[in-house]
Structure formats: C-alpha cells, structure tokens
Amino acid sequence: MVKIKRMDKLEYINEDVVMYDNKVMVVKEPRDGSHFDLSCPKEGLVYCFVGIDEIKPMLLTSAILLKNGWSKGQIYFRHSRIPRIKLCTDGGISWSVSINNDIMGGYINYVHELQHILFAFKINLEMEV
C-alpha cells in the first residue's frame, strides 16, 4: 500500500511570492521547513532565516493575473502560453482551477499555490505582483 502525503499545511518552495514585514518577497532558500531566506526585489535586500510564522501568503487576485499576462474571458482567466490551464472565481478569494477542461478538486487562494501548479507542469512563469 502506498501512502500519499497531503499538503494541508503551508509549504513554500524556491521562487514562491509571499509577504513579510508588509513587503512583497520571494522565497530564495528554504532552510529547515520552518525558516526561509527571502529576497525583496524592490529593495534589493535578502532577509535570512525568517520564521514561517512571520511569512504570510499573498492572495491571488484578478489584478495580479492581468499583470502577469492572463486575460479574462467571459468565465475564465487564461494565459496564452498555457492554454490548458484556466482559472475561475466567483469574485471571492477562492479560485477553481481547470486543467484540460477538468476542474481540480480543491480551490486555490494564494499566488504560491498557482506557482506550485505551474511548477508541477514545468511551466516557468515568473510572477509579478
């Protein structure tokens, strides 16, 4: 029997966009699962060994999607480079993800969750916020 680990807790990987100290940051190096090195592109600074309890996820918004090349159709947001993936929201904070017209089971709320989906498909799409 194979056991599959669910990702119920917040987990960040390299290049995830997060908030720290009210600033947009990028995860540069996960340390021990509880601490991370963060880069602040706006300041050009690196913050070392930041505790996970001090890091906040960044909400995924329509504005962020539009800024990153996604376009809004009647129902879905799409990106020209990745037509198989579509995002839809009811105006709240949750987004349903459709891959090849199949809706995934759960919802995403944060930029880093979209980044993880793209990473799983080996899609390197740098996110601006």
The domain tally reads 2
Uncertain runs are 2-6
- The gyration radius over C-alpha positions equals 15 Å
- Can you count the helices? 2
| Sequence of strands across the biggest β-sheet | 4-3-2-1-5
What order do the SSEs take from the amino end to the carboxyl end, as H and E? EEEEEHEEEEEH
Largest sheet: 5 strands, antiparallel
Structural overview:
This protein has 129 residues and is mostly beta strands. The chain has 2 domains: 40 residues, no CATH class; 59 residues, no CATH class. It has 2 helices and 10 strands. The chain has a 5-stranded antiparallel β-sheet with strand order 4-3-2-1-5. Strand 2 and strand 3 form a beta hairpin. The longest helix has 10 residues. The N terminus is likely disordered.
